[in-house]
Design a protein that fits this description.
GO terms for molecular function: ABC-type transporter activity. The chain is an all-alpha fold and 309 residues long. It is 77% helix and 0% strand. It has one domain.
């Protein structure tokens, strides 16, 4: 079995670092604190009212999952933004070219090491998230479904940082560019959500009313606009994850309200298949960015975006 030497080296350096162990410990301690405080509040409410609301435990699970997602979203670009640019700063990238290691192996090894470190963070937090199992409502299958979204955001956000790193000579510049792109992707849909009045379902209700010729034209224009917004929302990593999270906890009302906002009428193709489309788009975008990163560090590549070395 051929093992990527870059990945092997980077992984050993990362896991042997005391900073890595401290980061995992602090992260899980923070999550455990939130879970215990939230569960204590819910249990105290049960003692007071003598009513058990299992939805409260699901909300705790959703809160912990969201916090973990945001941490992963903002950690992985920092790890990948210095993957290639750090080699340029140390003047060691040219030395790697003199070995048998191919540019693809360099990119794949660096990316897999960052992927491994971030996913270890997710795996280490599973016991904390499993505390909700005590009261039911969440199964192991639900955790596995949620893990797919974590894997996707690691790949998607990580590829953005990796691509910025392949273009820049400075790690600081690459990190700033990666975070700027992520912030733009997350905030690009905010104006539409505000102007639409939040997660409104009025548009879908209006499609049930009789329409004259002018109204049909307006509805057609609205459907085209919804089609465009569906694609724009698919670039937002938070939207895709949030829909999957609400699918896991069975919050159908929130899912319907989001789909009404981004998917147009109830019979629209984008609405019915948006979650799969969103995941597919982000996976494809991440793959393209990773391939471009390989091209950017390949000497004399015809597909290099900037010809200067």
């Amino acid at each position: 079995m051929i093992i990527n030497p870059v990945y092997t080296y980077e992984k050993k350096v990362m896991v042997r670092s005391i900073k890595f162990s401290i980061a995992i410990s602090l992260f899980n301690a923070f999550l455990a604190f939130i879970v215990f405080v939230s569960m204590s509040s819910v249990i105290q409410n049960v003692k007071t009212t003598a009513m058990v609301q299992y939805t409260s435990f699901l909300m705790i699970f959703r809160l912990v999952a969201l916090i973990e997602f945001l941490v992963v979203l903002f950690i992985i670009p920092a790890l990948t933004a210095g993957a290639i640019s750090s080699e340029k700063e140390r003047k060691t990238l040219d030395l790697l070219y003199t070995t048998r290691i191919k540019p693809f192996d360099i990119v794949a090894g660096k990316f897999l090491a960052a992927f491994f470190a971030t996913f270890m963070l997710v795996v280490s937090s599973l016991p904390v998230m499993a505390l909700v199992f005590v009261y039911g409502g969440i199964t192991v299958g639900d955790i596995l479904k949620l893990s797919i979204s974590y894997l996707l955001v690691i790949y998607y956000a990580g590829s953005i940082g990796l691509f910025a790193s392949s273009l820049s000579r400075s790690t600081n510049v690459a990190a700033a560019a990666a975070y700027a792109v992520l912030i733009v992707l997350m905030l690009a849909t905010l104006p539409h959500g505000i102007l639409s009045g939040g997660f409104s379902i009025e548009a879908s209700e209006q499609t049930l009313l009789p329409m004259d010729a002018g109204a049909v034209g307006d509805a057609y224009a609205h459907e085209n606009a919804s089609l465009l917004m569906g694609w724009i929302y698919s670039t937002n990593p938070i939207t895709v994850f949030y829909i999957n999270l609400n699918m896991v906890i069975g919050n159908k009302e929130t899912i319907d309200s989001i789909f009404d906002l981004i998917g147009g009428s109830g019979s629209g193709f984008i609405r019915q298949n948006w979650f799969i489309i969103g995941m597919g788009f982000q996976f494809t975008a991440a793959t393209v960015l990773t391939a471009l990163s390989v091209c950017n560090i390949t000497p004399y590549s015809r597909f290099k975006l900037f010809k200067r070395d």
